[in-house]
Amino acid sequence: MSNDKNHVVIFDTTLRDGEQCPGASMTLEEKLEVADLLDEMGVDVIEAGFPIASNGDFEAVAEIARRTKNAVIAGLARAIPADIARAGEAVRHAKRPRIHTFVSTSPIHLQHQMRKSEAEVIEIITATVAQARNLVDNVEWSAMDATRTPIEYLVRCVDTAIKAGATTINLPDTVGYATPQEYEAMFRQVRERVPGSDKVVFSAHCHDDLGLAVANSLAALAGGARQIECTINGLGERAGNAALEEVVMAIRTRGDVLPYATGIEAGMLTRASKLVSAVTSFPVQYNKAIVGRNAFAHESGIHQDGMLKNNTTYEIMTPESVGVSKTSLVMGKHSGRAAFRDKLKALGYELGENALNDAFARFKDLADRKKVVYDEDIEALVDQEIAAAHD
Ligand code: KIV
Ligand code: ZN
């Protein structure tokens, strides 16, 4: 992990928050495969699971801790002594272990879920962060539902966690409620008001209930956060978490307005997306940014014409940069003559102008009837055209 002040720590929680997504559970072998790929890809912190949740989760975290070469391995723990002890035990063999402990701070959670007073929660923070810090040097503390917590109380909680020894402070948008402006302001205010803020790393953890998880995560960087918690394919509770591939490529593509860097090998993003989709059986939506099947596919005639002239006309990043072999010009009813001619060339046909016009007209008729026109359809159509010309 570099010490550069603009380095963004990528904290992947696919194996923890991602796995909490209904129906996305993974076997031990699948988790190991995902963890190995995340490590190879340059993820800084892998949240490997929630060790107290089950013996299987404990084993997975412990095995990932033993075998991971580079990344910090985090185990999640509620603010409960038994949870923290179990997480400490699970990450014990990691080269770089972290305990991630959290407690709710919002009035809604304190009243309805925890049934504790603000003062009681402050005491819990002191005791549990100190317990974790006795087990490992690297302790992350999270204020669950931070974005619905009054700023005065949030400042007190963060101050308490830092004094008790937390080294990373995470302020999650647990219910995906914040807007980018609010989320940025929250980080700015907390960092300005809590002494010692410059000695810890602030972290963003965003859920996508309003479709703002990535925008909020990037806004947090402007407010001084330098860790983003995210998942492959945006997998996670309810509408999911911020998508790792989107965070990484936004920073990489828009360095002019997002002057940060990550250590992620972006060329591995598509592989990671396919692996997580396969092991969870969660399909990736076709139009998903960066890793969706259509992310580098063009059907409209105007776009295809532009792409054939210069690929910067309709692509802001190259498919190769995220591990896709090439742009695809999909043949359909919106395709134009230029793409059709290009496709024929790729299929090995050179038609004269008249034959090309006839074949194109027949292709358009066919495309009106079929959703997708395959190469074989075009070959059949052109072969008929050639045969007719010889009759
Ligand atoms: O969304 C959330 O608040 C969490 C915490 C456990 C960090 O996942
Ligand atoms: Zn979460």
UniProtKB/TrEMBL annotation:
Catalysed reaction, written as an equation: 3-methyl-2-oxobutanoate + acetyl-CoA + H2O = (2S)-2-isopropylmalate + CoA + H(+)
Keywords, ordered alphabetically: Amino-acid biosynthesis, Branched-chain amino acid biosynthesis, Cytoplasm, Leucine biosynthesis, Manganese, Metal-binding, Transferase
CC cofactor: Mn(2+)
GO biological process, one term: L-leucine biosynthetic process
Associated pathway: Amino-acid biosynthesis; L-leucine biosynthesis; L-leucine from 3-methyl-2-oxobutanoate: step 1/4
GO molecular function: 2-isopropylmalate synthase activity; acetyl-CoA C-acetyltransferase activity; manganese ion binding
UniProt EC number: 2.3.3.13
Binding positions (Mn(2+)): D17, H205, H207, N241
GO CC terms: cytosol
Ranges for domain Pyruvate carboxyltransferase: 8-270
The family this protein is said to belong to: Belongs to the alpha-IPM synthase/homocitrate synthase family. LeuA type 1 subfamily.
Subunit structure: Homodimer.
Physiological role: Catalyzes the condensation of the acetyl group of acetyl-CoA with 3-methyl-2-oxobutanoate (2-ketoisovalerate) to form 3-carboxy-3-hydroxy-4-methylpentanoate (2-isopropylmalate).
Protein name listed in UniProt: 2-isopropylmalate synthase
Organism: Ancylobacter novellus (strain ATCC 8093 / DSM 506 / JCM 20403 / CCM 1077 / IAM 12100 / NBRC 12443 / NCIMB 10456) (Starkeya novella)
Organism placement in taxonomy: Bacteria, Pseudomonadati, Pseudomonadota, Alphaproteobacteria, Hyphomicrobiales
Portion of the full-length sequence here: 1 to 391 of 517
